[in-house]
Specification:
Belongs to the COX17 family. One of its GO terms (biological process) is mitochondrial respiratory chain complex IV assembly. Cu cation binds at residues 33-34. Helix content is 49%, strand content 0%. The chain is built from four helices and no strands. The protein is elongated, with a radius of gyration of 24 Å.
């Protein structure tokens, strides 16, 4: 080992068997597109096919349900 390397032999040996593709011990956050799909579909359907003059007001409860679901996964909308 040269003078520029700071790892000791035991540290190198401990990391030698580590799988670089193995998932880390910290769980990863799911992608926003993959969660709350039912709530999102209901919200979108209400907003797109509303016959009301004010779709935002008519669909407010579905929008709220979607926001609450996303917040449960750590997303802030």
């Amino acid at each position: 080992m040269g003078s520029g390397q700071s790892m000791t032999a035991p540290a190198i040996a401990a990391n030698a068997g580590a799988d670089p593709k193995a998932p880390s011990s910290v769980p990863s956050k799911p992608k926003p597109c993959c969660v709350c799909t039912d709530e999102k579909a209901a919200r979108d359907e209400c907003m797109l096919f509303s016959n009301s003059d004010n779709a935002q007001k008519e669909c407010a409860d579905l929008v709220t349900k979607y926001k609450v679901c996303m917040a449960g996964y750590g997303f802030k909308i």
